[in-house]
Amino acid sequence: MMALGAMQDWTMRITHVVDHAAREAGDREIVTRWADGSETRTNWAGIRRDAKKMAQALLALGLKKGDRVASLAMNHSRHLVSWYGVAGMGGVLHTVNPRLFDDQLDYIVNHAEDKVLIYDAAFQSIVDRMRSRWTTVEHYICFDSGEHSPAFEDWIGAQDGNFEWVGGDERDPCMICYTSGTTGHPKGVQYEHRSTMLHAMAGLQTTAFNFTPSSVMLPVVPMFHAASWGLPYSGGMAGIKFVFSAVNDPAVLHELMMREGVTDSAGVPTVWLAHFQYCDAQGIDLPPLKAATIGGSAAPKFMIERLMKNGTRVQHAWGMTETSPIGTVGGPTADWDSLTFDEKVAKTMKQGRPIYGVELRIVSLDDATKEMPRDGETSGALQIRGPWVLKRYFKAEQDATTPDGWFDTGDVGVIHPDGTLQLTDRTKDVIKSGGEWISSVELENAAVGHPAVAEAACIGMPHPKWDERPVLFVVKKEGTDCTGAEITEYLADKVAKWWLPDAVEFVDDIPHTATGKISKKDLRDRFADYTLG
Ligand code: AMP
């Protein structure tokens, strides 16, 4: 027999996290502001107690190990209970994004073969609409009480909580999230207990979320998207106080942040945009947060600057559903104290450095076997590997990785000598002009700096001589005006001359995906007949 070491068996199951939180930080509060305006308070001990009851209730419904339970819900304490309760009965929680289109909702619930679906009353209309199409769902439970039945609290309330977690292998699945690509059906990414545990532990690094015992986190990133960046697990490990809001109204978030002593928050850039607008309209200061993690899409310069001037550490994070999701975080680097404010802002605009546990590399866009240098200049297709990176999509027949285990992210970027990742595009969107690559994202980021530009999207249009040339689509800010020539002139000192768009087109709106990102595919479809004149 192969010799093993002499340490204890300790299966990495995520129920350990809630056990730890309840034992070591049992009275740290979990506050929820519900959609109807009411508020409840529980704590880590309460979350564990309810998760045990929920696990019992699921088994009482006849669920078996490995069965999928869907949640269609915003951020709140009962959703948190489900994260641990489903895993605690050996099940797999499928967090469904309520913003998906009906055909996607149909596909993912049937594909995951969800047996139970637990939903917020706010999404009753989705349930009513989709019920006949969701053929595998046997039980519907509502997170809210009131006229909806059965209500979550009553359902778990029938159990006594006297229950041993269902055990198993640490490589068992515990959660599944679907990622809706731009083409084809959404794909399921199934996280394991072990991968989730390692990812959450990595999230505790000082270069990642950097929680302390006094951290109070209000995560705006939804629990239905990319495992809420692993925060419900990292937060449990650190025993922090959570403040959840089931609505994303900036007035509500602001009031909660001020009243509950929130120190940390996390969300996509638009969350901060809305918050800035709210504070400006009210003539009030931003909340005094210690740290704001921003990811999902690039955080613009003015946002980083404003938060940093407010004394908030900005942690610009990159990741994707397939990477659990954290890949890189932009915490302070070794040279941080010697940098000027502007240099710190410039560094924070990049996507940060890999947290311990994952490796990054870039390969040539023309030849994926050729690794590119980490010189801060050469761009390439970004690949990642590590224990919380996808190997194979749910029910897929083949691995999604290269033979040497790298997952191709579909992102394009450069890696700087100090390991900092700077994303420049998506492989599908980067524009090939005369054999050279133009970053559509850099053009967009530069264009939104123009005072009259509300939103900009750049796509490559076919060109007889150059293969493709950039065309910039712009939505003007209300009450402003400008010409295409003015925008090109504005860009002239910000990007290389040969990058300047061949045309600037003004549009009323730019299409977005269900997760709020610019949908270049829809934009291309909309302008399929476009010709460069
Ligand atoms: P999703 O799986 O829906 O979370 O989307 C992941 C994708 O979002 C990545 O592949 C990137 O293209 C994009 N993304 C995530 N974080 C960032 C970031 N900090 N800056 C720019 N793009 C990002």
What is shown here, in short?
Keywords: Fatty acid metabolism, Ligase, Lipid metabolism. It is built from 15 helices and 24 strands.
Largest sheet: 9 strands, mixed
How many domains comprise the coordinates? 3
**Quantity of strands, as a count:** 24
| Unreliable sequence segments | none
CATH class group of the largest domain? Alpha Beta
Percent in strands: 15-25%
Number of helices: 15
Rg computed from alpha carbons, rounded to a whole number of angstroms: 24 Å
Oligomer: single chain
User: Gap between N and C termini, in Å?
Assistant: 74 Å
The outline comes out as: globular
* Cofactors and ligands: adenosine monophosphate
Helicity range: 25-40%
Mean pLDDT, to the nearest integer, reads 95
**In which order are the strands of the major sheet placed?**
2-1-10-9-11-12-13-14-15
CATH architecture of the largest domain: 3-Layer(aba) Sandwich
Query: What structural class do helix, strand and pairing data support?
Result: alpha/beta
The CATH topology name of the largest domain reads: Rossmann fold
CATH superfamily of the largest domain: ANL, N-terminal domain
